[in-house]
Specification:
The complex is a heterodimer of chains A (458) and B (628). With 458 residues, chain A is of the alpha/beta class. Chain A contains 15 helices and 13 strands. Chain A has 3 domains: 106 residues, 2-Layer Sandwich (Gyrase A, domain 2); 144 residues, Four Helix Bundle (Hemerythrin (Met), subunit A), CATH 1.20.120.430; 158 residues, 3-Layer(aba) Sandwich (Rossmann fold). Chain A has a 7-stranded mixed beta sheet with strand order 3-4-5-6-2-1-7, covered by helices on one side. Chain A has a 6-stranded mixed beta sheet with strand order 9-10-8-11-12-13, sandwiched between helices. The termini of chain B are far apart. Chain B is an alpha+beta fold and 628 residues long. The chains are: A alpha/beta (458), B alpha+beta (628).
């Protein structure tokens, strides 16, 4: 088989361990770059071996995770190619980081079902199994198609289309110049291209960083729990954390400062912030807390607003509803273990958020539904964060990184005074890299752009 | 009444640029070949622009030459101006363009054909193609001659049910006042072939005497004259004729807008689809309303004629409007037409019905080439004609067809595009259609294709021997540059300084010096004392290969990837409807196109990457089944 592929092989979520698989002739070479075994060892090719050590980022030698790596020497592996399996300590962030290291060091991201496909093509599995491979590929592709449609309808596709349009504009200039040399088409100057490429590079880097260093992966989804005193904020936090960290009391106003906790819900990292209750108060210390809560709410990715469903809404509740308006929010109607006065039908509540759940933070009722909802909101979907588009799909991130490389390549070729037909190669490559995300035919796009932009012909 | 005209191997219908190449190739490959034209006066005619070559089209002509075609040699004999275009834009897109003496071009080609052994040129309209058991059998002319033939190449250009429009006037006609072909189109339809209607157009011809060139910019030919054919040497003293440049203006545009209602295009009388890249002047004025002027080139049509071609002014407006708008242009105030501009509609086929060899998928030994396949342009036509001629002959010899892939030649890109994706407008070649443009340069055309041309017998042993010598010289010289180290010296550093190149303190390989953009082979002469005597062509090739090595390697790596999929062949007896997991649209498309390889399948619109995977697995599965 041509290239070496890599993918996370364990299901999304937060299991005890996670496995990253590599398959292909460069598997061992790639591992060598990112894996430091505890005992000095040779990666000699013989049978199966397991090594214990660290995955490191070779650019800064930072340790990423303590792992076990299994080596399978061809043909004695699932795909019959050289394979490695990295057993890591799981967690979406760590797994993605390791996968990213594999990709940066020469692996290609595996297509859906590709390990199985290779196993089959290399004669490893039989005909009956092959039938199910077809189904597998189909169903996986379908899911992926669905997921990508969701993403592509949104911000990411708009963003990428904008970038592509800028490039198409330049490409049309270049190509019309080449294909219609006799016409008075303005020459594409190096300066014009550099300005355009610089802009595009910045935008692409921003997109890429939104994944690499983005809040979701680095800090988690910044989640604020809002609620008036005693609505059940701290109980909720405790239920989620499953340990008593915040002080919970029967009296309003016990939680004075904010408490931050990093938790992982179904593989989605959340930075949970419990705030002082929103309450008009004379108490100086508590006032600072309230102001801070309001400020934090402004900068939050997700607001979980909790209300006491055993009581009617009061002025303070309405103020909270005002804060969450037009923000990513989940409304929790708490204390259904005590009484339920059908707040879910309240007009103001319904108009403030699409996500309304009934829970009992005290006995855990409804918490699973809350987890499902968070997973639905944040797994595999672009999220409109404060500063625009965020990439969560590693396939997209991978393509955008390739595009950035191509931008750099194009800038190099301009700096080195290469002629325009050479410069056009990396510029076209940027379009191709991005088109993998949006799925269009680049050549057709360019030709369409030429004819819509220029007036050419006999 | 009919009579039997005898037995021939190959019959070519139409003697335009496609037909001439097809007939010559078949005859030269030993086939007893017939070439029919409705009028022998129209043989190898250029009914539109009087030039050959240009961006990507010049590449096609060179490719035709290296496969043993005639177009390059014929224009080398009959050009009246030569220019190398795009010289500042990089080696991949240099393109040679020639203004032709149109009549001389025709006469030279006609004479070449007349002299060709095995080739029989006949004036006749073909009215019927007889097919038996799905195989070509015979061909019938309008005067009742029936020829038994084994293979037929249809190259009817814009003649099939040709209809000319000039304003409110329209009449049935082929291009340039020649009879149209009226019956063959229905015959093709009866054979089950899908017929499309396309449209194109041409500007007026004018009399040189009535043009004021003092108001125009003059465009001269190049000082150094380079040939299209790798076998030709050009007489550097050949007299060249200039072209002229002028512009439309707001008055021209106003006349057009005022009379749009009289255009058959805008009133809906023309049904055919026209090309976007060849818009009529009224199209340009409507679509680019904010553009203040459009370029107009006045091109000579030959040495012995005062007729001139007005590039940029194609139109289907009535003649009176045409005259008014032409006369609004600087230098054309008193212009007299010799022939008005017109639009022409014609029948063509859906090229998706063809194999990559250009043979029809269901009717054996029936080939199609040129404009009837939905393309546009003389060079595009000639390329297909040559390939159809070669493959008709190879098939009768029981050999595999010549199929060029997208990494080998523009011809490969052209044929793969139309056969795999079809076309909804007349298809024009453009360099941007080629993914591996840097590898498909005109300078290396011989390196890409001469082997093939020689193997099929269209390149002479002598030419091949010279070519092999050149190839060896190039390889040797690159090797020498890579292994020769130049010691640092005052002389070397002086040369570097004079060229704004950084100086060196240690030894440096010649190849690394040559790689520097500010240096070239000539500039290094003084310090490279042991260099061999080499031809300009070899030096050019060495320079390009060295200077662009990085990018060339990059594209070669892409080609390697591409070839892997091209080499995964699809058995032609595959039943797509039996493949579980293929989406319906993909199934239908695959069934229609019948791709030869997984690579080709992946280029069909409507076939997704998932479909390709399913296909791959299915094929693998069947292979192992048959092995069991």
């Amino acid at each position: 088989m041509e290239n070496t592929i890599a993918a996370i092989s364990t299901a999304t979520g937060n299991g005890g361990i996670g496995i990253i698989r590599l398959s292909g002739k460069n598997s061992f070479e790639i591992i060598k770059k990112i894996f430091v075994p505890f005992k000095a060892t040779t990666f000699e090719k013989k049978g199966y071996i397991i090594k214990y050590g660290y995955i490191i980022d070779p650019t800064n030698n930072q340790k990423i995770d303590e792992v076990l790596v299994s080596f399978f020497v061809a043909p004695k592996s699932y795909t019959t190619e050289d394979m490695c399996e990295i057993n890591s300590h799981g967690g979406t962030i760590v797994l993605r980081k390791i996968l990213e290291l594999c990709l940066k060091n020469g692996a290609e991201l595996a297509e859906p079902g590709e390990f199985t496909k290779r196993a089959f093509l290399n004669g490893r599995i039989d005909l009956a199994q092959a039938e199910s491979v077809i189904d597998l590929i189909n169903s996986k592709s379908e899911n992926e198609a669905k997921a990508s449609i969701n993403q592509l309808e949104g911000y990411l596709s708009n963003k990428i289309k904008n970038i592509k349009n800028k490039l198409l504009d330049i490409m049309a200039d270049i190509e019309a110049n080449i294909d219609y040399p006799e016409y008075d088409i303005e020459d594409v100057t190096n300066n014009k291209m550099q300005v355009c490429l610089n802009e595009i590079k910045d935008e692409l880097i921003k997109l890429s960083k939104s994944f690499e260093n983005g809040k979701i992966l680095k800090e988690g989804v910044k989640t604020i729990i809002l609620g008036k005193p005693n609505a059940g904020k701290s109980s909720l936090l405790n239920t989620i954390l499953k340990e008593e960290r915040a002080i919970v009391s029967e009296y309003a106003g016990t939680t004075r400062d904010t408490i931050e906790e990093f938790v992982n819900i179904k593989g989605i990292p959340l930075k949970l912030i419990d705030t002082a209750g929103i309450r008009k108060t004379e108490d100086k210390i508590e006032e600072i807390g309230v102001n801070r809560a309001l400020k934090l709410a402004e900068g939050a990715d997700l607001i979980i607003a909790i209300f006491d469903a055993s009581k009617d809404l009061d002025e303070e509740d309405y103020e909270i509803l005002e804060i969450i308006k037009n923000k990513n929010s989940i409304i929790l109607l708490n204390k259904i273990d005590i009484d339920d006065i059908h707040l879910e039908n309240n007009e103001k509540i319904c108009s403030s958020s699409n996500n309304i759940l009934k829970i009992s933070a005290k006995n855990g009722e409804g918490i699973d539904e809350l987890y499902d909802l968070i997973e639905k909101m944040y797994s595999n979907n672009e999220i409109d964060m404060n500063d625009g588009v965020v990439i969560t799909n590693i396939r997209h991130k991978n393509q955008i990184d390739k595009a950035i490389n191509s931008v750099e390549e194009a800038m190099n070729s301009i700096e080195n005074n290469f002629p325009i037909d050479i410069i056009s190669i990396p510029i076209k490559q940027i379009l191709i890299d991005l088109s993998v995300i949006t799925g269009e035919d680049v050549s057709e796009d360019i030709i369409n752009e030429i004819f819509s932009k220029f007036c050419l012909g006999k | 009444m009919s009579y039997n005209g005898g037995k021939f191997d190959v019959a070519v219908i139409g003697a335009g640029h496609a037909g001439c190449e097809a007939a010559l190739a078949a005859a030269r490959m030993g086939m007893k070949t017939l070439l029919f034209s409705i009028s022998l006066e129209a043989l190898a005619n250029m009914p539109c622009n009087p030039h050959i070559g240009g961006s990507s089209k010049g590449h096609l002509v060179k490719e035709i030459d290296c496969l043993g075609g005639e177009m390059g040699k014929n224009i080398d004999k009959t050009f009246i101006q030569l220019r190398m275009l795009n010289t500042s834009k990089g080696p991949a897109v240099y393109s040679l363009r020639a203004q032709a003496d149109r009549k001389m071009y025709q006469m030279e080609m006609k004479h070449t054909i007349e002299k060709q052994e095995n080739l029989y040129l006949k004036q006749a309209e073909i009215v019927d193609i007889k097919v038996e058991d799905g195989k070509v059998k015979a061909i019938e002319t309008n005067v009742g001659a029936i020829y038994d033939v084994d293979s037929i190449i249809v190259a009817t250009g814009t003649y099939l049910k040709g209809k000319i429009h000039i304003g409110e006037v329209s009449f049935e006609s082929g291009p340039d006042g020649v009879f149209p072909s009226v019956k063959l189109s229905d015959c093709l339809k009866n054979l089950g072939i899908e017929i499309f209607r396309f449209k194109t157009g041409t500007p007026a011809r004018i009399n040189r005497r009535t043009v004021d060139f003092s108001k125009m910019e003059i465009q001269e030919g190049d000082d150094k004259l380079l040939p299209f054919s790798f076998e030709d040497k050009i007489d550097q003293n050949t007299e060249q004729l200039p072209c002229y440049l002028t512009y439309t203006n707001s008055k021209t545009h106003e006349i057009i807008r005022k009379n749009l209602h009289r255009s058959p295009l805008y009133s809906g009388r023309i049904e055919g689809t026209g090309p976007r890249y060849c818009p009529s002047i009224e199209d340009k004025v409507v679509r680019f309303a904010d553009k203040e002027r459009h370029q107009i080139f006045i091109e000579p049509m030959g040495r012995n004629t005062d007729e001139m071609y007005v590039q940029g002014m194609s139109s289907s407006l009535p003649e009176d409007v045409q005259i008014e708008m032409y006369r609004s242009i600087a230098g054309l105030e008193h212009v007299e037409f010799t022939r008005p501009a017109y639009a022409i509609e014609y029948d063509c086929i859906n090229p998706e019905e063809l194999k990559l060899s250009l043979e029809h998928k269901t009717i054996e030994n029936l080939f199609f080439a040129g404009q009837i396949n939905g393309t546009s342009g003389y060079e595009e036509a000639a390329s297909q004609g040559l390939i159809a001629g070669i493959n008709a002959a190879l098939k009768l010899k029981g050999k595999d067809p010549v199929i060029l892939d997208r990494s080998q030649a523009y011809i490969g890109v052209l044929i793969d595009d139309i056969v795999t994706k079809g076309t909804n407008e007349p298809y024009r070649m453009m360099t941007s259609r080629a993914e591996y443009r840097l590898l498909l340069r005109q300078d290396n055309t011989d390196l890409r294709l001469t082997d093939i041309g020689h193997e099929i017998g269209l390149i002479s042993d002598e030419r091949y021997k010279n070519f092999c010598q050149k190839r060896e010289d190039i390889a040797k010289e690159i090797e020498r540059l890579k292994t020769t180290t130049i010691k640092p010296s005052d002389k070397l550093n002086e040369i570097l300084k004079n060229n704004d190149s950084s100086t060196v303190s240690g030894g440096i390989k010649l190849v690394d010096l040559l790689k520097r953009t500010e240096l070239n082979y000539e500039k290094l002469k003084e310090i490279d004392v042991n260099r061999p005597e080499l031809s300009d062509e070899v030096i050019e090739e060495v320079q390009i290969q060295v200077k662009y090595e990085g990018y060339i390697k990059l594209q070669e790596a892409q080609v390697e990837k591409f070839k892997k999929l091209e080499n995964k062949k699809i058995p032609q007896d595959i039943v797509y409807s039996a493949i579980k997991g293929l989406r319906l649209e993909a199934r239908q498309k695959l069934d229609k196109i019948k791709p030869l390889s997984i690579g080709q399948a992946s280029r069909i619109s409507g076939v997704s990457p998932a479909d390709v995977n399913v296909l791959l697995i299915y094929i693998e599965q069947n292979r192992s089944k048959s092995e069991e």
